[in-house]
Automatic annotation (TrEMBL):
It is an enzyme of class 2 (transferase). It comes from Vespula pensylvanica. CDD domains: GPI_EPT_1. PANTHER family: GPI ETHANOLAMINE PHOSPHATE TRANSFERASE 1, PHOSPHATIDYLINOSITOL GLYCAN, CLASS N. Pathway: Glycolipid biosynthesis; glycosylphosphatidylinositol-anchor biosynthesis. One of its GO terms (biological process) is GPI anchor biosynthetic process. This is GPI ethanolamine phosphate transferase 1. Its EC number is 2.-.-.-. Ethanolamine phosphate transferase involved in glycosylphosphatidylinositol-anchor biosynthesis. Transfers ethanolamine phosphate to the first alpha-1,4-linked mannose of the glycosylphosphatidylinositol precursor of GPI-anchor. The lineage of its organism: Eukaryota, Metazoa, Ecdysozoa, Arthropoda, Hexapoda. Belongs to the PIGG/PIGN/PIGO family. PIGN subfamily. It is found in: Endoplasmic reticulum membrane. Residues 503-793 form the GPI ethanolamine phosphate transferase 1 C-terminal domain. Gene3D superfamilies: Alkaline Phosphatase, subunit A.
Length: 843
């Protein structure tokens, strides 16, 4: 009976009457597409969840602050986008005097990502940002974890509307903030008033000092947060080595001297501490995000009450600023802080410093315990040996302090804090290996399943008893998994979910009943030059495979192979290169045989594009947007003949691409279009004969499409250039800082060559070729999964995520492009006019 039931349940999966698995009927196709979408979503989400799951733990115990703090108040000045190299080479006079005679200074090493929000979070919370905030939204998502502002008695903050609201949404209601209008962040208008953003912040603080400070004059635990966006804004538009960038830095120096004098004059108690730093740096070309040294090194200067005045340089991690702020004003360290208190920044008070380091150790030890409970699923009554070690150190440090042995207590506290950091890392990574194992087996099972779906291997020779045995094994595995994790008092639902998907995926792979060969091809995603070698190989294959090959197909293929060898496109505008490409396109259209009115309109459109690019016309308000919006209309005036329509798509999208370009991107686009236009149409006709049979040719064509798609991503750039951002790219459309609009324009620019690939797939593609792309792309994504991790530079992390995401979504991208490009390929305005004329005739 059991045998009969199991085989009735699975017989539609195991085989059909012909002996071949997975018949191409309507229902099974829907089930296959549904499972494809589910398994891809689970795999993509799972890999990101493994590496970027939120480290935030709510409800951690708060270590009480210290009494008799050296400072009653602290002024935190964050110069957004101020890199250390420019600051060191052009250090302004007042801050230079502070570093030499009145304080301590060093380099603050930032971590990933090198953006404003995570940088300010690291400074204020001691946490290198909750990575899951990437999926929640960076701008409007408030800081939902502890910070020095929350722990202060009161905090007043002034600065950018993108940063200040993040901290003023505190549940405690002790953080007060004010921001200038977002319209002020206009990269173009600020050229005439570059100091406006920072002067507003300083003026607001001085007005507060004059009108509202009397009630706070004798209170302690106060923080003033001044967020200065001037350097970042000017760095984007004029670059960080420019004269205006240095002028803004000197202006900040002058205003800091002014507020220090007026603050000391008003409070008159020598109980104010000052910290000056930056959230991130900036590259030479005015962007941040790629993780270079210029982006991760920022200046740090501390002076005032409780701060050492040795003038010696001590480098720190950015998160180490958090416990320093808490210690100087005697407030509790934020509960999720990972920073380490650096005693070199504190004045010589061994008793206070020993107690401060002990508080830092206790705060880290609480995190170790909570992470152990979450990761290992063990009750509170059990203590790991690592926790026992930390507790022993805490007891010994307390004994040293009681006996007046402060130096010994400080030394042991510093060593114990190092151990606490190691233990914290261990428990945060505890489950990662289990998750990776689950994901590996799950994806391997899917690839086997897909391979057998494609090739259709007969299963008549497989014994039913063997299939029944394996079915029982997998059912038992599911039951064991559920019992294993629900029977544990601290079971983790995430681990159980991935385990279940792993078993189900392997089960479906077993149903295929064979072994497959996993082919790894990821060199092109890692090394850009490998795409050149691949393109050369494609040229050779096209010469061999195609009976009649146009010489232009081969020459354009060789030209495409050169682009990955060129330097990546940087935000420095190469105006002459883009202008030459526009002139070439004008000449090409002038020589084409087509209707005169259409030719004139297209040439006028290109001339206007050139004038906007040369900034002879301001296109930001409507001209550039009209050029962008009118692209489909120009495309639809071409006939639906495949090659005519692709040529129309090339001409229609060329203008908006040029306005978003900085160098040779238009030439790459034209070369790619020329290559696709000279593909032999006979290759599509051959596919109609064997549309349901996968052949080696299908895998060959699939590899062609995959390489073309990768060339669209990396033909003009690399992972760093994709991850980085610069307003110069969108200057002809918008100059007011708007992350959503600017990011949308950049994504559109990246998608223009991909749209061309999608349109070409209507000519060159087939259903079996898409299955081959799906198979090859999924094989490619498996090894790339192991390169994704949450540590390293932003360049390393961002590149690993980009490689994996591109590989896993590549088949979906091609499929989406194929269907989304359908209106561009099939809709025709001439047909619409014909229908209208028929209607008038009938009337």
């Amino acid at each position: 009976m059991l045998k009969f039931r199991l085989f009735n349940i699975f017989k539609y999966i195991h085989r059909n009457k012909s002996g071949y698995p997975y018949a191409y009927n309507k229902n099974s196709t829907y089930l296959f597409v549904l499972w494809t979408l589910i398994i891809h979503f689970v795999f993509l989400w799972g890999v990101l969840d493994i590496n970027f799951h939120s480290p935030i733990i709510q409800g951690l115990p708060v270590v009480p602050g210290l009494k008799d703090a050296p400072a009653k108040r602290l002024i935190l000045l964050v110069a957004d986008g101020l890199r250390y190299r420019t600051f060191r080479e052009n250090i302004p006079p007042y801050l230079k005097n502070i570093t030499q005679y009145k304080g301590v200074w060093g380099i603050s090493h930032t971590r990933v990502p090198t953006e404003s929000r995570p940088g300010n979070v690291a400074i204020a919370a001691g946490l290198y940002e909750d990575p899951s905030a990437i999926f929640k939204g960076w701008k409007e998502n408030p800081i939902d974890f502890d910070s020095v502002f929350n722990q202060s008695r009161s905090t007043w903050a002034w600065g950018s509307p993108d940063i200040i609201p993040l901290f003023t949404k505190s549940n405690k209601g002790n953080v007060y903030g004010e921001s200038y209008p977002s319209e002020w962040q206009d990269f173009d208008r600020l050229q005439n008033d570059i100091l406006r953003l920072d002067s507003w912040v300083f003026d607001k603080y001085l007005k507060w000092l004059e009108k509202k400070s009397y009630t706070m004059k004798h209170m302690d635990g106060i923080i003033f947060f001044l967020h200065l966006l001037g350097c970042d804004t000017i760095g984007h538009s004029h670059k960080p080595q420019s004269r205006k960038y240095i002028e803004n830095m000197n202006y900040i120096d002058q205003r800091i001297e002014e507020i220090v004098q007026k603050t000391e004059q008003f409070f008159d108690d020598r109980s104010t501490a000052y910290i000056f730093t930056a959230d991130h740096g900036m590259t030479d070309w005015g962007s941040h995000g790629s993780g270079s040294t210029d982006e991760t090194e920022t200046p740090l200067i501390a002076w005032g009450a409780g701060v050492s005045s040795t003038g010696i340089r001590y480098d720190v991690d950015q998160a180490d600023i958090t416990p320093l702020i808490s210690t100087l004003i005697g407030r509790p360290i934020p509960t999720n802080n990972e920073g380490v208190l650096r005693k070199h920044y504190l004045e010589n008070n061994d008793t206070y410093n020993a107690q401060a380091l002990l508080n830092n150790l206790k705060q880290l030890s609480y995190q170790v315990t909570e992470n152990r409970i979450l990761s290992c699923g063990i009750s509170d009554d059990f203590m790991d040996w690592r926790e026992l070690t930390l507790n022993k150190h805490i007891w010994e440090i307390n004994e040293y302090i009681k006996n007046g042995k402060m130096i010994e207590g400080i030394t042991e506290a510093e060593e114990a804090i190092k151990l606490a950091k190691e233990y914290l890392y261990y428990f945060k990574q505890y489950q990662r290996n289990y998750f990776l194992m689950y994901m590996t087996f799950m994806w391997s099972g899917w690839i086997i399943f897909l391979f057998l779906k494609i090739v259709g291997i007969p299963r008549k020779k497989i014994k039913p008893s063997l299939l029944l045995l394996v079915d029982i094994i997998f059912l038992s595995s599911l039951i064991v998994l559920i019992i294993r994790y629900t029977g544990n008092s601290g079971y983790n639902l995430r681990q159980l979910s991935y385990g279940l998907f792993t078993v189900i995926s392997l089960w479906l792979a077993e149903i295929g009943g064979t072994i497959f060969l996993l082919f790894i091809m990821f060199m092109g995603l890692t090394y850009r030059a490998a795409l050149s070698a691949g393109m050369l190989f494609i040229v050779v294959m096209q010469k061999v495979i195609f009976n009649k090959t146009h010489n232009m197909l081969l020459w354009s293929g060789l030209a495409l192979a050169m682009y990955p060898l060129l330097p990546i496109v940087e935000p420095y505008p190469r105006i002459y290169i883009v202008s030459i490409s526009i002139c070439i396109m004008i000449c090409k259209i002038a020589l084409r045989h087509q209707l005169k009115y259409k030719k004139i309109i297209e040439i006028i459109r290109l001339i206007i594009t050139g004038l906007v690019y040369l900034k002879l016309i301001d296109g930001r308000y409507w001209i550039s947007w009209i050029i962008l919006a009118s692209a489909p209309l120009f495309i639809w005036t071409y006939t639906v003949n495949p090659k005519d329509r692709i040529e129309g798509i090339t001409i229609g999208l060329f203008c908006p691409l040029s306005l978003l370009s900085a160098s040779y991107e238009p030439f790459f686009f034209l070369t790619l279009a020329m290559h696709l236009l000279h593909w032999p149409l006979s290759i599509k006709d051959c596919d109609k004969i064997t549309d349901n049979i996968l052949s080696i040719t299908d895998f060959t064509k699939a590899s062609f499409f995959m390489l073309y798609t990768l060339l669209c991503f990396f033909g003009t750039g690399n992972m760093a250039s994709i991850s980085s951002f610069d307003p110069v790219w969108t200057q002809h459309f918008i100059t007011v800082f708007s992350p959503f609009v600017m990011s949308s324009l950049i994504l559109f620019k990246l998608s223009i060559p991909l749209i061309l690939i999608g349109c070409a797939s209507h000519i060159l593609g087939s259903r079996t070729a898409f299955l081959a792309v799906l198979f090859l792309g999924d094989c490619l994504s498996l090894p790339l999964m192991y390169y994704v991790n949450p540590y390293g530079s932003w360049l390393e992390i961002g590149s690993a995520i980009s490689r994996f995401t591109i590989a896993i979504t590549l088949p979906c991208i091609l499929l989406i492009l194929h269907y989304f490009s359908y209106p561009l390929m099939k809709f025709n305005l001439n047909q619409f006019e014909h229908l209208l004329s028929e209607k008038k005739h009938i009337v």
